[in-house]
Amino acid sequence: MDKHVLRGYHILSGFTDIPEILNGVKTHHEFYDGSGYPEGLDDGQIPLIGRILAVADLPVPKADRCL
């Protein structure tokens, strides 16, 4: 599961030259306590775009019932 972050980063790096997007993809599974992946970043090291994508990546209970 944790390899999808770096795979996504490498795939998108061939299509975009916007570093903020690539940085967000790479850091959206980092946690404030440093227990995330792939780099184990903590509170002050996680960029805003990574934090935003982390919230957007949260599962929504029963979301499939809305479709």
Structural class estimated from helices and strands: mainly alpha
Structural shape:
globular
Provide the domain count.
1
What does the radius of gyration come to?
A: 13 Å
Poorly predicted runs: none
Number of separate helices: 3
Key attributes of the depicted protein:
67 residues, single chain
Give structural notes.
By secondary structure, the protein is mainly α. The chain has one domain. 43% of the residues lie in helices and 0% in strands. It contains three helices and no strands. Helix 1 packs antiparallel against helix 2 and helix 2 crosses helix 3. It is globular, with a radius of gyration of 13 Å. The termini are far apart. The mean pLDDT is 88.
